[in-house]
Structures are given as C-alpha cells and as structure tokens.
Specification:
The chain is mostly helical. The chain has 6 helices and no strands. The longest helix has 18 residues.
C-alpha cells in the first residue's frame, strides 16, 4: 500500500480498537464500520473513516496523480523539513533573510565607477 494513507489507516484502527463498539459490545472492527453499527462510533472515528475514504479516492483521482494526497498528520511545513522560521520561496519575499535597501540611483559604485 502506498504510504500516503498509512497514517490515517493506523489512526482509524486505533480508534476502532478503543471504541465501545469493539471493547464493550465485542463486535469486529469491520462490523463496526458497516451501516447498522457505524452510528454508534465516536465522532473522531467517523471523521477518520471519512478521511480514509477520501484518501483512498485521492489515490485513483487523475487530478492528484502527480501531486499525490496532501499530508494528513502533520502540516506541510513540518513535512518538508523546514523549521518554524523558514521563508517561502514565493509570495514576494526573499527566500533568505537578506534585507534589500532602496536606492535613488545616484550612489557610487564600490569598484570605483
């Protein structure tokens, strides 16, 4: 299985294992995901189930074939390995923290010109 849906699948499995449907009523997790029992799941498990379905659909969606699914568990900045103070390479700001000073066009050049 591709790694884009692995995290949300593991979170759904953990949520199902801790739900009352499995722990108290002793149903199988697969049975808890089906219509008669799906309404008894906590809201978090229902949201994870919906997110996992969207993730699986995104794997076959031709519009997302090259970009892939968006990361779910962590933000895009942390996923790319950038620190909290990292600048974006677009948006009208320089990528490096260099300050660009304005000139009026009459400054002398340093090389003597």
């Amino acid at each position: 299985m591709p790694s884009s849906c692995k995290d949300i699948r593991a979170a759904l499995a953990a949520c199902l294992q801790n739900s009352d449907c499995v722990m108290v009523d002793r149903n199988l997790p697969a049975d808890c995901l089906r219509p008669p029992l799906v309404d008894t799941l906590p809201t978090q498990c229902q949201q994870l189930k919906r997110g996992y379905g969207e993730c699986k659909r995104g794997m076959v969606d031709m519009r997302k074939r090259f970009r892939g699914n968006q990361p779910i568990a962590v933000s895009q900045e942390l996923e790319a390995g950038a620190g909290p103070g990292a600048k974006q390479l677009y948006g009208g700001r320089p990528a490096v923290g260099a300050v660009v000073r304005e000139t009026d066009g009459r400054e002398e050049r340093k090389d003597g010109g």
